[in-house]
Structure formats: structure tokens, C-alpha cells
């Protein structure tokens, strides 16, 4: 544990466990939570035939860091001092945080300035703001002042509305959380108080399954011995129970009957737990509001930008340089022209130095040669401003919303078991889903269901693999009668009829061996039996909850064979053994630790014998088993274990021996000495456990399946075929992780290799592998591994997990995905996307990710192209009008070009177009490699687009220019022709690239062309606007329509030629598309071979 707490009451200093909450908006998901006890020894009295001796719980070992740190002194400078039941003194002296929480970003006063500040982090917005300001100056006014402001104002407004709605939802969630009620001790009685008003130092009472309002130190519980069972759902995604204890010094006190006071010295909060199977618990608040563990962990999801958008900024820089180049050319040419015509400027139109329109001759405002050049440069920037497409940003936002809508509505990503649909929590990185190279996954609750099932057992050297059980009737199992009720285990396992019959022969050696085996399964654990109501009032189910799902599976197996654990208290357990209820006194318990890799329980049996039952990993158990007594049985057990492991099963070895009175007394004496030691208690307790856990008789071994989520092996196989490297980061031991690796098809027998610690070694080894298993990984280490790959490679990373311990990893990765459902919600709250099952990762990446990347890539390049064409047409016109920056195209057409004329088609195509069908993308995962290699958006495509744009602009400008060279058509009429020609040209260009046509696509593309004609006619029909009736003059001639057709055909010839060449030199996407068009005729083995090389040859995997 990261910190310690100690409380002093009546001059006596001792340790008590911490209690924390899951605060912030996430805290409402969990119920009561508790921090691990700072001591692993508990003493309570009980009466048995061996005498009144305390029950011993200990030897938690290295994993229970509370043992090794329980007596660590806390530095006064670093300590937080909390005066129990005296919040005024506590908060006045230390100015601690209140319990009100806030996750919202804005307030009414700060929304406008802060939101604008955040929006103007986009350099393009600053650029357009400067352009709009320059256009307000009389000397530089090229467009109407209102028209120049409209595009930027529209984009800012839409984004602000979206941000305001998102923050409103956060405010609403905060209000709900802060106004929840808790029972707080006031005037020696508990009264309800809003969470936001709770102060550090107050004593709080929380009932079972309620949410904790703040981080607390546990004082007492409803259990007489202070025991509580906690669930770490919000911490690590595991729903199994863990045992925690309150100290007896505080457990015996009732705050309503006697005044409690004291001093707590503590460090930082530690973890997040959920109290179960306890009616109530009382604790003192030590951390509140923003200082709680959950709020400290909830630093907020980092602002992520898609890789495509980041690379797009590079192209925007290129376009900016291109823009400056055009403006420089115009202003230099303008300066040369002024020099050549210096003597004519007095009377020349546009540059007259004198005004002769009045009787009194006046001078125009002429600023001289240098300033005129400077003004022309700025005016050029204003005229050519659409080179930087401001509409692209709002188009990208709208396209992402549309893409998110279809991802959310995808029924193939709906999880019926948890009734949860796909969630898109971040709208700005949809396209990153199409470029993922590394997937970092948690194991428990992400790859697995965290539901263990007993599969087979080796007992006395005989393998019982449940193979004889083939019908549902074989799963009925054992039931008992108790107080007129029928009790059945909630879950059953397949029964092996031979093993069941053998267990009933209690007078034979084999029968006793089997009974001892199942007795060990039922007793050697910390399982808590609960009764569950059923639809039949005469039948109740027994549900087993405990620290380990492995233990749950073993106890259910024992119950199915007639060894049913029906009661557990702090001092004894009751087991119904095939209809005979027996009580066993729990004399001692050594819990599992990572060094011993086993746990043991000492039971006082009804026949007055004392038996030691031990279970653990095979590596640790065979060293303490007496092999001399029956070496053949031990060898057979080892062979069966190897067989189980090869099937991917989790294995445990079971042993026992009977203790003599002298052995038990010696153990008890050693245990008491170790448990009262001030220094080195953990090591001493471990030594006591090792001394008693030896010379065991082997009972056998068990094989348990950690059930994978549906479709996990197939999903991982598809991801690997897509060229995605899958890493599993788990806190489990190495054997467990490798076992899951095999069962999930993450590993094969031939491709496992092992690497030692160290980031450099890890990177060098892992970079050569397609699959990596990292074991015993702490939450921050998970984030560190993700950061290592991000910093050392240019590949895209994705992290997926379901627990709070995955939050840092999820936030560190380029894309973070939370698994939603029955587990904790913190991973979901911190994620960019959330879904119910790991297998949904395949359609998310291979289908939606591919589509999103292809669509967004094309849309960005198309927006660059359509705006650059328009700017270049204006540029060519400037070269033939004495560089005066007058424009033939009206102000309103310039503004509407990006808003109405050409924006809607690209948005519709960006949302709906599909280069390949879902079936093809799932059938050929290799096609995903196109996004990994940036085939749809790269520097080469950008510069090819620029060359095509130059050609099309030349055709669009010079065909009408030359056709009407000697005519009397004015500039406004030509401007209308250029406007319509460019709109028709870019929309047909888009139509040539559309792959899947829908009615809305037709409506958007052809409707935009029609809308352009209508808008141009309306603008030219307004007398007060320039170019009155110009369109009607030029459209009345045949030459207008001939030019329109000639521009469209001539401009798009190169684009058509490129498509023709691509047909005969196709890439993988085009091959698959042709296969879809023409059916199986193109789906030949040769076509498949052409797609295979798109990803690297497989390497060995690392674990």
C-alpha cells in the first residue's frame, strides 16, 4: 500500500484500516468501499474443545503491503492530522478540502472567455480572425464587412453550442452527486446530511450497498468481530470479495452511546473498494472532495487529437506557404506595374491621384509606392483566404458526429448480456481507429469474463476429466434440506458419475481420499456463502463470494459433489457433507501470498482431530509434499497437471496432513510471537507458515477454466491477421497470463519466449514480436509501457480495459476503450469509446475504423482541392486586371462557395461512402493495413492533388477567358460563369470518386449544383448588389453552356486517366472492390496472394 494511517485514542496508538470512496461522478456507480487493513493479524475469542484460543488470520505476505508497512512512521511534515469527531478543529487548522466535487469545465461567467480561448488554440481560427479584422479597415476592405465575419462566427458558434451542452451534462451529474444524503454523527445521533456539506473529521455511517461519500477510516462494522467483505470492482474490475478487518479497540465503541475522540495521522488515500455482506459500517472522513482517491485519479481525460488532423496541419502549413507565395507574386507584380505606369496614375482608373469629379480638384488617398505594395499584399491575403479551408473544421466535426451515430447504432456491437450499446465518448479521433498498430489489453474482465468453471481433477493419481458427464441432468448436483427449505448451489459443474460414487464410499481408502480432496476444496478458502431467493419459496440458492474466482469455482465443485459450505463465521465453518451437517472450528488461516504461492487452513474437526489443508501452485506445492509416501501418485498428478496446462486450464495442487497436539501448540506459540512482533512481522509470519506447511500428503490437483469472453480467440486472430500487435498487460502471475494467452489464441505452443525486466530490453525484445504478455504489471507500469511504444515508434496505440487500474493506460494511449457492463465504470468514464465485449474490437477497427479513416482522408484532401481551385481562379484573374485585387466573383458567392455550394456533398460522402462492404473487410483483415501505412492520406497524394488542382484551375479560368476575349461580356458575367464552372467541376470530381451511392448522395451532389444556379440568379437579381442581371446576360448564349461542358471535360481528363491506370495496376483495396463487383470470379488464389504481403511476416511472440 502507498500509505499508512494510525489513530490515537486515550493515549493508545494502534493501526486501523482505511476506508475510501469512489467519488466524483463515478462514485455513484459503486457502493461502500474500504481500504485494505493495515494489519494482517486479527484476534477474536472463540470456544472450542481445544480450549479458548484466539483465531489466527495472517501471513498475507508481500502482496499485502500493509504488513510490511503497518509500523512505518509517518513523517509529521508529510502527515495529515484528522481529529476524530471534531471537524471544526480539523478543518480550521489544516484548511482541508470540502466534499463538494466539480467535474464541469465552465461556469456561466467563464464559459465565453474560456471557450473562445480554447477554440483559438487552432491556429487556423486565429488566421481567419486576423483576416476578418483586416477586412474591416477601409484601406483593405475587399469583401463586405459582414460577409467576411460570417464563416468564422458560424464555426465558433456551432462549436460553442456543442461544448456548452457537454458541460451542462457534467454540471447536472455534479449536482446529483453533491446532493446525495449520508448519515453523519451530530449531537450523539446520526442525521442526514448532503454529501457536499460533509467535512473531514466527521463520523459517518453507511449501510450495505450504499455509496461512500468520501474516503474514510473504518471504525466498526455490523459484524461483532469487525470483519467486512469488500469488492474491488472499481479498482481492478474484479467482482470477487476480499476480507478486511476493523480493530477491536474501535469496534467495541458505539459513537451514539459514548463520545469518541482521537487523532488520525495518515498519508494519501489508497484505493477504491465496495463493502458487501455487511449491514452497516462506521468510519471517520479523512479525505473529501477533490482530495479523495477517485478524484485524484480522475484528472480528466487528456485532450486527444487525431493523427490525421495532426498531419493535416503540416499540409495546412504548406498551403499557407503557397498562399504567401501567391500574395508575394501579386504584390511584386503590382509594384512593377506601378513603376511602369507612374506617370499615368493621376488619371488612370483605380489609381487616380486626383479627383476631378468636383469643381475643386482633390487628391485621393494615395500612400506611395511602398505602402501600396504592402496594402496589396494584405488585400491578397484577404481575397485568397479560402486557401486555408475554415469550413474543413466544421465539416470534420459534422462528419465525426455522423460516423459516431452509425457506430452507436451498429447492432453488431450491442452487448445483450449487459444491455449496453457502443458509446462514442470522444468525437475527435474516430479516424484513428483505422490506423491502430498496437493494442494493449487488460486481462481480467476484458479478455475473460472473470468467471471460473471447474473442469477436471486429478485425485489419488487418477484423472477425472468430467468426460462421462454429457447431459444437463448431470449438472443438477447436490441439494440439502434445512428448516423445511431446499438449498442448492447457485452454480453447478458437470458431474463425473464415477467420482460421485467414489465420494460416497467413506469406509474405503479411495473414498476417504476423494472425501478429503473435496473437504479441502470446501474449507481451504475465504469464501462467504450467501442465500439467494428464487421464484420457488421452498427453494433457495447458495451463492459463494470470495477473494478469488478460482476459490468460488472450487467451492461450487465441492458443493456439486455433496460437500456444501453453508455457513462461515469468524470462528467456524459449517459444511454439509452429503446430507450430514458438520461444524469445523477455524483454528488458523495462512492466506495466499506471492512468495509462498499457497494458502492453508487449520481446522478443528468434529472428531477432535486437527487437520491442515493446503492448496497452491504446483511449483510451490510439490516442494512441501512428502513424495516418499506415494511417489507414483505424485508422478501421475504431475503428468495430469501438464495435460491440464496444455489445455489452458488454471491448476492448483491440494495437500493435507493431520497435526498432533504438540505440533499445533508449537505452531500456535510461534504464530503468537510472530504476530506480536513490531518489526519484520510479514517475514516471521511467512516463516511460521512455511514451517507448518510441509510433509503434506498429496490429495490431487484441480483444473479450472477462466472462461474467455465470447469470441475473444477469433477476435485476437483477426487482429493479428490485420497486422495489429496485441499486448496483454496484467497483474496476474506469469503462469496464469501464459495460460490465458494460449486459450485466447494470443500465443501458440511454438511462439512463446520470455523476457526479463527493463524498458530497454522490453522494447528491443517486444519490437520483434507480434504478441507480448506482460505479467505482474502495476497500473502506472501499464501506462509506462504504452508511453514507451508511443515515444519510441510512430505507430498508433490503443488501450482497452475495464477497471480503474486501467485508467492511466487508457488515457495514455492514442485511443482508449473502456469495457462497460457489470464491472466498474471508471475505465468507461476515462475512455474515448466504450463497448460491452472485447470481440467488438474487430468490427470497430476493421470495419468502422477502416471506413472512418478512408472517408476522413478523402474529405480532407478534397477540401484542400476544392478551395485551392477557387483561389487559383481568383489568382489568374488578378494577373489580368493590373493586380488590383478586384474580383469578378461576387462577395456573397465567395462566402457561399464553402458554405452552400460545395460543403454538403463532402459531408454526406464523408459519413456514408464505403469503399468496401463489412463482409469483405471482416473476411480479409489484411485490408486494414491500408490505414496503418497511411495509403489514403500522405505527402505523395497531397502533392498529386496540388498538381491536379493547378491543371483544373487553368482550364476553368482560361477556357472562358479565351472564349470571351473579344466579346463585350463584363467581368461580373464571367465571374458567374467561373463560379458555376468551378462548382460543377468539383462536384463531378467528387461524384467520380463516390463508391456507394445512396439517394441522399445524389441529392447532395446534384442538389448543390442546382442550388448554386439558384443562388447566383438570386444574387444577380438584387439591384443593390454588384453584377445586377449579369448571369441572365451570359446564360442566354450558347457559348456559356459550351464553355461549361468544355471546362468540366477538359479539367477532369487527368483524373479520369489516373483512375483508368489504377484499374490495371490495382492496390489491395481495389482488388477487393473488384471482387465485390464481379463476385467470385476475381476472388482467385492469386488475388488473395496479392493481399497477403501487406503486413510484416510473423515473428516470435514475447511473454
Q: How would you characterize the overall build of this protein?
A:
With 1103 residues, the chain is of the alpha+beta class. 48% of the residues are buried. It is built from 36 helices and 38 strands. It catalyses: ATP + H2O + phospholipidSide 1 = ADP + phosphate + phospholipidSide 2. Pfam families: Cation_ATPase, PhoLip_ATPase_C, PhoLip_ATPase_N. Residues 82-148 form the P-type ATPase N-terminal domain. Residues 828-1063 form the P-type ATPase C-terminal domain.
Q: Indicate the proportion of strand residues.
A: 15-25%
- State the secondary-structure class: alpha+beta
| Percentage of residues assigned to helices | 40-55%
How would a textbook summarize the main sheet? 10 strands, mixed
Low-confidence stretches: 1-73, 268-272, 468-473, 1080-1103
Cα(first) to Cα(last) distance is 27 Å
> What's the total helix number?
36
The rough form would be described as elongated
What's the rounded overall pLDDT mean? Answer: 79
Assembly state of the chains shown: single chain
Rg computed from alpha carbons, rounded to a whole number of angstroms: 38 Å
Kindly state the number of beta strands: 38
Task: Indicate the topology.
Elements (H helix, E strand, L loop, with lengths): L4 E5 L2 E3 L3 E2 L36 E3 L6 H5 L10 E5 L2 H8 L16 H9 L3 H13 L9 H34 L2 E6 L2 E6 L8 E5 L7 E7 L5 E5 L1 H4 L4 E5 L2 H4 L10 E5 L7 E3 L3 E8 L5 H5 L9 H34 L13 E2 L6 E2 L4 H16 L6 H19 L14 E2 L11 E6 L6 E12 L2 E3 L15 E3 L2 E5 L7 H7 L5 H15 L4 E6 L5 E7 L3 H12 L2 E6 L3 E6 L2 E11 L7 E7 L5 E7 L1 H4 L9 H16 L3 E10 L1 H15 L5 H12 L4 E12 L3 H10 L3 E5 L4 H10 L8 E2 L5 H8 L4 E4 L4 H14 L3 E6 L5 H6 L2 E5 L6 H5 L2 E3 L5 H39 L11 H11 L1 H10 L5 H6 L5 H4 L6 H25 L7 H23 L5 H22 L9 H5 L3 H27 L3 H11 L6 H7 L9 E2 L1
Parallel strand pairs: 4-27, 18-32, 18-35, 22-24, 32-34, 33-38, 35-36, 36-37
Antiparallel strand pairs: 1-2, 1-12, 3-9, 5-12, 6-7, 6-8, 8-14, 9-14, 10-11, 10-13, 15-16, 17-37, 19-20, 19-31, 21-22, 23-24, 25-26, 26-27, 27-28, 28-29, 29-30, 30-31
Helix pairs in contact: 3-5, 4-5, 4-10, 5-11, 5-26, 9-10, 9-25, 11-25, 11-27, 13-14, 17-18, 25-27, 25-30, 25-31, 26-32, 27-32, 30-31, 30-34, 31-32, 31-34
Amino acid at each position: 500500500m502507498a500509505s499508512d494511517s494510525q489513530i490515537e485514542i486515550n493515549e493508545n496508538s494502534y493501526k486501523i484500516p482505511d476506508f475510501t470512496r469512489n467519488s466524483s461522478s463515478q462514485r455513484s456507480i459503486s457502493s461502500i468501499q474500504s481500504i485494505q487493513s493495515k494489519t494482517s493479524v486479527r484476534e477474536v475469542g472463540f470456544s472450542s474443545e481445544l480450549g479458548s484460543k484466539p483465531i489466527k488470520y495472517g501471513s498475507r505476505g508481500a502482496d499485502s503491503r500493509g504488513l510490511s508497512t503497518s509500523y512505518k512512521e509517518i513523517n509529521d511534515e508529510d502527515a495529515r492530522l484528522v481529529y476524530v469527531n471534531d471537524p471544526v478543529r480539523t478543518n480550521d487548522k489544516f484548511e482541508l478540502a470540502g466534499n463538494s466535487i466539480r467535474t464541469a469545465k465552465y461556469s456561466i461567467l467563464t464559459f465565453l472567455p474560456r471557450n473562445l480561448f480554447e477554440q483559438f488554440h487552432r491556429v487556423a481560427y486565429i488566421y481567419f480572425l486576423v483576416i476578418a479584422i483586416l477586412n474591416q479597415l477601409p484601406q483593405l476592405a475587399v469583401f463586405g464587412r459582414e460577409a467576411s465575419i460570417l464563416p468564422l462566427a458560424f464555426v465558433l458558434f456551432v462549436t460553442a453550442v456543442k461544448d456548452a451542452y457537454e458541460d451542462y451534462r457534467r454540471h447536472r451529474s455534479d449536482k446529483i452527486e453533491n446532493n446525495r444524503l449520508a448519515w453523519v454523527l451530530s449531537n450523539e445521533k446520526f442525521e442526514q446530511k448532503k454529501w457536499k456539506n460533509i467535512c473531514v473529521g466527521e463520523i459517518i455511517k453507511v449501510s450495505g450497498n450504499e455509496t461512500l461519500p468520501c474516503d474514510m477510516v473504518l471504525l466498526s462494522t455490523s459484524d461483532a468481530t469487525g470483519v467486512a467483505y469488500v469488492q474491488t470492482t472499481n479498482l481492478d474490475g474484479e467482482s470477487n470479495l476480499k476480507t478486511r478487518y476493523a480493530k477491536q479497540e474501535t469496534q467495541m465503541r458505539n459513537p451514539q452511546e459514548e463520545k469518541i475522540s482521537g487523532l488520525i495521522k495518515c498519508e494519501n488515500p489508497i484505493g477504491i473498494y465496495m463493502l458487501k455482506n455487511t449491514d452497516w459500517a462506521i468510519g471517520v472522513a479523512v479525505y473529501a472532495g477533490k482530495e479523495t482517491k477517485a478524484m485524484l485519479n480522475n484528472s480528466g481525460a487528456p485532450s486527444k487529437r487525431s493523427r490525421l488532423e495532426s498531419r493535416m496541419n503540416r499540409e495546412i502549413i504548406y498551403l499557407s506557404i503557397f498562399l504567401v507565395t501567391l500574395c508575394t507574386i501579386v504584390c511584386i507584380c503590382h509594384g512593377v506595374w506601378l513603376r511602369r505606369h507612374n506617370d499615368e496614375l493621376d488619371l488612370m482608373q483605380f489609381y487616380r491621384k486626383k479627383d476631378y469629379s468636383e469643381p475643386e480638384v482633390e487628391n485621393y488617398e494615395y500612400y506611395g509606392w511602398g505602402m501600396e505594395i504592402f496594402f496589396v499584399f494584405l488585400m491578397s491575403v484577404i481575397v485568397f483566404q479560402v486557401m486555408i479551408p475554415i469550413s474543413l473544421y466544421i465539416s470534420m466535426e459534422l462528419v465525426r458526429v455522423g460516423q459516431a451515430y452509425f457506430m452507436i447504432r451498429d447492432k453488431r456491437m450491442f452487448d445483450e448480456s449487459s444491455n449496453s450499446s457502443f458509446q462514442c465518448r470522444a468525437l475527435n479521433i474516430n479516424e484513428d481507429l483505422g490506423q491502430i498498430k498496437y493494442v494493449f489489453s487488460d486481462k481480467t474482465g476484458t479478455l475473460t469474463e472473470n468467471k471460473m468453471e471447474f473442469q477436471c481433477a486429478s485425485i489419488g493419481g487418477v484423472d477425472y476429466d468430467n468426460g462421462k458427464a454429457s447431459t444437463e441432468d448431470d449438472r443438477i448436483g447436490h441439494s440439502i434440506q434445512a428448516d423445511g427449505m431446499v438449498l442448492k448451489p447457485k452454480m453447478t459443474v458437470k458431474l463425473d458419475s464415477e467420482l460421485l460414487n467414489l465420494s460416497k464410499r467413506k469406509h474405503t481408502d479411495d473414498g476417504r481420499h476423494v472425501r478429503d480432496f473435496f473437504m479441502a476444496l470446501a474449507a481451504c478458502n475465504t469464501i462467504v456463502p450467501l442465500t439467494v431467493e428464487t421464484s420457488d419459496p421452498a427453494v433457495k440458492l447458495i451463492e459463494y463470494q470470495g477473494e478469488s474466482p478460482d476459490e468460488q469455482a472450487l467451492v461450487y465443485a465441492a458443493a456439486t459433489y455433496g460437500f456444501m459450505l453453508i455457513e462461515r463465521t469468524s470462528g467456524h465453518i459449517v459444511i454439509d457433507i452429503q446430507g450430514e451437517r458438520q461444524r469445523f472450528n477455524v483454528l488458523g488461516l495462512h492466506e495466499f501470498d506471492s512468495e509462498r504461492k499457497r494458502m492453508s487452513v487449520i481446522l478443528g474437526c468434529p472428531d477432535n482431530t486437527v487437520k491442515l489443508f493446503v492448496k497452491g501452485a504446483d511449483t510451490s506445492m510439490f516442494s512441501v509434499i512428502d513424495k516418499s509416501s506415494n511417489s507414483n501418485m505424485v508422478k501421475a498428478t504431475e503428468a495430469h497437471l501438464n495435460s491440464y496446462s496444455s489445455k489452458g486450464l488454471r491448476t492448483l495442487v491440494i495437500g493435507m496432513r493431520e497435526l498432533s497436539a504438540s505440533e499445533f501448540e508449537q505452531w500456535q506459540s510461534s504464530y503468537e510471537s510472530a504476530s506480536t512482533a513490531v518489526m519484520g512481522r510479514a517475514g516471521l509470519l511467512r516463516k511460521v507458515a512455511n514451517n507448518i506447511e510441509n510433509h503434506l500428503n498429496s490429495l490431487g490437483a484441480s483444473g479450472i477454466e477462466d472462461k474467455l469472453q465470447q469470441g475473444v480467440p477469433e477476435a485476437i486472430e483477426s487482429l493479428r491477421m490485420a497486422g495489429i500487435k496485441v499486448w496483454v498487460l496484467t497483474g496476474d502471475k506469469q503462469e496464469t497470463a501464459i495460460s490465458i494467452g494460449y486459450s485466447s489464441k494470443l500465443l501458440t505452443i511454438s511462439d512463446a519466449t520470455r523476457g526479463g525486466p527493463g524498458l530497454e530490453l522490453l522494447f528491443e525484445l517486444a519490437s520483434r514480436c507480434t504478441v507480448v504478455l506482460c505479467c505482474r504489471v502495476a497500473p502506472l507500469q501499464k501506462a509506462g509501457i504504452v508511453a514507451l511504444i508511443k515515444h519510441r515508434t510512430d505507430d498508433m496505440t490503443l488501450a482497452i480495459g475495464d477497471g480503474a487500474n486501467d485508467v492511466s493506460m487508457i488515457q495514455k494511449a492514442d485511443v482508449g476503450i473502456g469495457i462497460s457492463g457489470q464491472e466498474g465504470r471508471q475505465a468507461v468514464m476515462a475512455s474515448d469509446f466504450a463497448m460491452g465485449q472485447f470481440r467488438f474490437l474487430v468490427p470497430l477497427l476493421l470495419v468502422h475504423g477502416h471506413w472512418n479513416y478512408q472517408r476522413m482522408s478523402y474529405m480532407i484532401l478534397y477540401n484542400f482541392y476544392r478551395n485551392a481551385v477557387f483561389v487559383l481562379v481568383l489568382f489568374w484573374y488578378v494577373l489580368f486586371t493590373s493586380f488590383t485585387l478586384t474580383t469578378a466573383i461576387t462577395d456573397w458567392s465567395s462566402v457561399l462557395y464553402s458554405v452552400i455550394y460545395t460543403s454538403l456533398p463532402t459531408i454526406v460522402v464523408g459519413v456514408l461512402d464505403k469503399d468496401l462492404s463489412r463482409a469483405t473487410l471482416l473476411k480479409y483483415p489484411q485490408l486494414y493495413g491500408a490505414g496503418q501505412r497511411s495509403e489514403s492520406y500522405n505527402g505523395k497524394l497531397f502533392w498529386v492533388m496540388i498538381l491536379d488542382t493547378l491543371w483544373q484551375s487553368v482550364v476553368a479560368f482560361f477556357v472562358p477567358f479565351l472564349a470571351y476575349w473579344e466579346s463585350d461580356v463584363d467581368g461580373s458575367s464571367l465571374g458567374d460563369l467561373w463560379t458555376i464552372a468551378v462548382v460543377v467541376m468539383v462536384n463531378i470530381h467528387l461524384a467520380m470518386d463516390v463508391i456507394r451511392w445512396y439517394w441522399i448522395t445524389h441529392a447532395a451532389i446534384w442538389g448543390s449544383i442546382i442550388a448554386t444556379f439558384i443562388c447566383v440568379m438570386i444574387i444577380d437579381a438584387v439591384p443593390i448588389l454588384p453584377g445586377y442581371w449579369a448571369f441572365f446576360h451570359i446564360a442566354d448564349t450558347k457559348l456559356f453552356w459550351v464553355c461549361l461542358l468544355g471546362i468540366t471535360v477538359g479539367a477532369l481528363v487527368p483524373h479520369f486517366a489516373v483512375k483508368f491506370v489504377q484499374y490495371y495496376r490495382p492496390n489491395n483495396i481495389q482488388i477487393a472492390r473488384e471482387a465485390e463487383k464481379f463476385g467470385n470470379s476475381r476472388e482467385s488464389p492469386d488475388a488473395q496472394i496479392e493481399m497477403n504481403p501487406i503486413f510484416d511476416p510473423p515473428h516470435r511472440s514475447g511473454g
